[in-house]
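Task: fold both queries, return tokens.
Query 1:
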Amino acid sequence: MGIADGTMADEAAPRGILAVANNLEQLQDGFSALDQQVGGGHYKDLKIQPVEYIHANNLGFIEGCIVKYITRFRNKNGKQDLLKIKHFVDLLIQLEYPD
């Protein structure tokens, strides 16, 4: 009995704590977070998910966003995702090469 099964002594435990505890139990049971996607399936069936590539290559936040949006634009938000990429590239140029 404990946080993960919802039997805490304090019934007013924040839902976030319960979700984290449940996720930890799933990971310990061999569950892979890469096998689950919340909000669609535009990454789940790829040969390599953007998060795996981003993590393996130690990319920063902006670079990671660019990888994420370029990977999904044809299967999710089309032109809107391309415009987001353009915005992130402009941000990266501004932050990396200030005048």
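Query 1 returned. Query 2:
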Amino acid sequence: MQFGEQHRRTLNYRRRLGRVLLHESVRVHSLALKRLARDGIVAIWVLHLSAARAYREGRKAAAATIIEIADAAEREWLRRKTVQIGRWPR
């Protein structure tokens, strides 16, 4: 295999990985918004509690994913600077 071909394969892999990561981040953000719309700020706390429970039960990958969703929800809540409890304003 020549250097040029290997370099192209590496670039293609990075592009594919970038698309997957972007798609996953969009999915995480979408889930976070849905939880906020349904439960308001309480969703952030419940997600953290769920992550802690998953971690205690040995489901570390699930816990990490739930924390990602909770963090995305918290970032969105802080971005909107809303201090409303209950229904998330639309």
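Both queries returned. Flag for query 2: The radius of gyration is 18 Å.
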